[in-house]
Amino acid sequence: MSRAPRFKFRLYVAGDTENSAQALSNLTALCGKYLANRHDIELVDVFREPDRALADRIFMTPTLVKLSPAPALRIIGTLGQTQSVIQTLGLGTLAT
Amino acid sequence: MNPIGKTPLLDHDAEVSALVDMLLKTGRRLEELTAGEVDTVFDSDGRALMLRGTQEQLRRSELARECAILDAIPASIVLIGKKGEILTANQSWRRIALANQLQAAPGPGIGLNYLETCDKARGDGSSDAHLASSGIRAVLNGTRKSFSLEYRSHSPQEQRWFQLTATPLADDHPSGAVLMHIDITATKQAEVKLMLLSERLSLATAIAKVGVWDWDVATDVHTWDPTMFAMYDFKPGDHINYRKWSSSVYPEDLPGVEAALRRTIDDKGDGSGDFRIVSANGTLKNISFAERVVLDQSTNVVRVIGVNVDVTERRAAELALRQSEERMKHLAAHDFLTGLPNRMLLNDRIGRAIELARRNHKKVAVLFLDMDGFKHINDSLGHPTGDMLLQAIGKHLLDCVRASDTVSRQGGDEFIVLLPEVNHPQDTAAAARRMLEAVAGVHSISQHDLQITCCIGASVYPDDGHDAEALIKNADTALYQAKENGQSSFQLFDSAMNVRAVERQFIEQSLRRALVRSEFELHYQPIVSLKTRAITGAEALIRWNHPTRGLISPAQFIAIAEDSGLILPIGAWVIEKACRQLREWLDAGLPEMTMSVNVSGLQFQSGNFVESLSAILLDIGLDPTVLELEVTESLLMKRPDFAASILRAVREKGVRVAIDDFGTGYSSLSYLTRLPLDTLKIDQSFVRQITTTPNETSIVTAIIGMGQSLRLRVVAEGVETAEELAFLSAHDCDEAQGFYFSRPVPPAEFVKLFDLSHPWIRPASANAF
To answer: Is the pTM here over 0.80, yes or no?
Structure first.
């Protein structure tokens, strides 16, 4: 039995603005459904850590970064289009 | 780059960066291009630019949140402008403003000038309002960083407290202030209540002088109130711990009080008791304590709290009360003079002795003692000396009885001794003999060596009575008998005595009424001159005609009259009656003669005897020389000097004095010569010897000879035969009386004796009738 990979996300938000809050809410829901107990979410508030957004080359919020498993990838927006997000992140096959 | 549509925006750095730059440059609305999915974008310098919608949304939600928070706070909060105008208020404020009808457009209270409202306040609470406005102004103009004020807002229905705080909107350049009113009524009430309670408690403990202590068991920290410090005489700053406290406890009491404390802790309960302390300045104090444990949530004892009360004065008062009660009890049960048990205690002890004797089949003896002639000691040496003698007698009696015996004083010169365990009848007699000897010893009292005797009468349980009253009464009866037997006599009770005692009581009671009822009368016996055979005098003799008993002889009642003191009125009556009789006879023409009256010792000693005698003679108009008082030898013997002085006074008035029953006493010649006498009366027992033992008549002749040598008239009593008469005549006896001549007769018969036909009356001397 192959060991299931652990997902590491980083979500860049702008305080508790509406879209950012929506993105966090959607991400949490997806992880709860597909990645129970094998995901970590790091939240970065660009208002609090503006240097970090610049260093990480983040241009908009909300931005989700998948750090692992490779390949790393970024999704901008509220993560409201659930199916496409699932596909992009490669979670669909895991659900079966 | 794909136009941003319904698909997630993939991040292609270069594209996005270019897009952002272009958008920023063109100023096109980002929201439209990002379909509202994005909050912020960053410029090339990394500055986050918030989209307008987001800005608006953020501002709205922040405001809403802040309003919600403000509205959720129970405090009333307003924001005021620089001039004090109310800009905005939270819900609590609006509610209160509504209630207080502070409404002004656009909302409740909004627009109103808070400072002006405060400035305008008048009456109750206005000083608080003025204080508030000046404080708030200070905050608004930047002279104060903050301001806080507690104030009361009391309505007749309730008392409320508030706290007002004013905080500037900005620290450096205040453009307004936040005012917050917090209702602190509950806190304040609890505070006031606690303060009152604590004040009341400390006042109460101070008034009651109750010291309160609190001992933290783990740290051994003792918290004492000022009363405790004062009680132990510690200085207010002294550090108190268990060792310091326990070293103050009186060492003897420490184990007890420590045991009580240990019990309180072990039982997780409470305890109380007493102990003594030696306070810091060395004062011994009685402390009463009560204590109780304080438990934590796991029911471990964490503290012990308690109280101490200084009960030294209370204990002293209790002790004094107990002592005075005991003293009162002792006084009530003891004779004040000798300290011996009194009648009450004696009765009690006799009762108990009888109870015990009944069970053990033993006997109980009660001995009644009475001093002989004690009155003379009081009369001649004074009562203080008499009292000291009684005390000495009490001590001597105590010395000669066992510890289980009771010596009690009954008042006067009477003592009663209880012997609670008597095995043999002779034990009582032996005890009585010891007491007679103890009393008869020489008592040295205030420079006098006094000698006195006593008589003792005794009764025995169960033979002579079954209760204290009967035993004492019968011992008293026996005592009377002992008195009759002479000084230093002891007499055990026998039942025949009771008959005599009853008789005695009957006579005494009857005597009290006899004078009033005129039951007495006088009979007269003639006294005849042996030379002339003429009647030269009469002796008045009392007769008692008792309404039921008939005639009672003087022998039966004179002694009782003397004991009871009734002899005084009876004697006075006799003297007056006899004198009136003589006056009557003389007035009727009978020849000159003397009237002889017997006088008792008691009469003689009564203070005004001589004066009242003179008064009677004067009243009746009788020459004192015709009255002759007869006194007995024994009366003269008891107190010769005193008797002589009275006799002298009597004779100075002209009244004659005769010595009665001469020869029966123990008179010495020397004493006879000292007495102022007129007449010697030879006792009839010697006269009787003339006929019964003719060869023993020397006494009669001696008395006649003595009388003649002292120039006294000699009268022979009880002459019954011619032989006696002849003998007396032959020996030159002056006069005689007796049955040979006449019995004592009533007055009417006496007069008839002067009839010439009487064989012993010579015609020559009959000059009357």
So the answer is: no
